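Appendix C reproduces, verbatim, an entry submitted by the partner laboratory led by Prof. M.T., so that reviewers can inspect both the input and the predicted structure.
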Amino acid sequence: MSLTAAKWIIATEDELAKCCYTKKIKVKSKSGDKTYEIDRGVISATKTAEVLTDRFHFINLKNDGTLYAYVDGCYKDDGLQIMSEYLTRNFKHIENDKGNPEMSKYKRDSIKEMLTTCNYIEEFQWDSNPRIINLHNGLYDIDTMKLTPHSHEHLSRIQLPIDYDPNAECPAWDEFLSKVINKNDIEKILEWIGYCTYYGLPIQKALILFGPGGTYKSILLDGIRSVLGEHNCASEPIQSLETRRFASYELIGKLANIVGDLPPIRMASTAIFKSLTSGMDTITVEKKFHQPFQAVIPAKQIFSANELPIVSDRSTGFFRRLDMVQMLYTDDGVKDLIPQLSTTMELQGLFNLAISKLPALLERRRFTNETDIKTMRELYEARSDTVAAFIDTCVRPAVGAFTTKEEMYAEYVA
């Protein structure tokens, strides 16, 4: 829906009365022999800025230059466009005494300056109480399990596209997970989905869904995105976060960084990855054409892969940050379930199931069936450097024996 069509762009009569006043001006008749007094509408830039602030509760983010407006229960980053549409929609018909638009460029610029030079907040002030989840129909408290009305005082730019229904269930998702994931990992996946709704990073982990093609990894990732909302997710491969200058900015204000088919490109460094999964480290973030700033980014890191990227880092600090769910099943019966997974009721039910796991997870700060460091190291090395893994498991020295390259390669790809 375009902004001009949105109901919240149309001014109320009280708002128009506050923005405008009339003044009497003298005009001459066409013949010039008579003078008349008429009322002419005048727009006050100061009053209009006050009306806009009262309605949209504009906020400026320091170091960023973005103007946020509160609309439909959360703060949106297109505040300047909302301001412009509001002024155009409600004042374009008012002319000054010269027949020109009363809402002139000068007045627009004055209003813009008033809105963009006050009400500053820091990055860390967004969603500062992560135990309150902003849903489409209200604010859900994970401790009380109650829904309360939206409020502009809750500084949130993240809203899940879920209408909370405590009675919603997800039988299709229950069946899907039982067919594509080992039963010991189902609880962990549900915990991860619940964890992704939480705007914080108390558990230093990233999740890898590993398995060959056709094992429904992308369907699972699509389901997680659907619960969180596409606009609340980024999609930056680990490698680009380490090498691309502006990549980390794409994670600002996101609940998760979800990457399907992670490219098996060698990672020369894991420093940024470790910081992003620490929950405490600040990293340098830069928006194009703006000054860099420091921020802690709480977006969860979730990847799927057929083959893992080779890393130079073999430290415990790297492997302890990884958790893996292997997806190895290719049950054809799953295909009939896929259309049902994206229905409103199923997603509401999946949210209910996942959010019920969150309080206990946050208390113990450990996922169910979490992959230990030793196992994670072995799994990762076997699934990233496949040549080394083949030599380690399949090749043995034998005096006098001989194997051709062709025979060796055939065994490797078998």
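The mean pLDDT is 88. Additional entries are available on request from the coordinating office.
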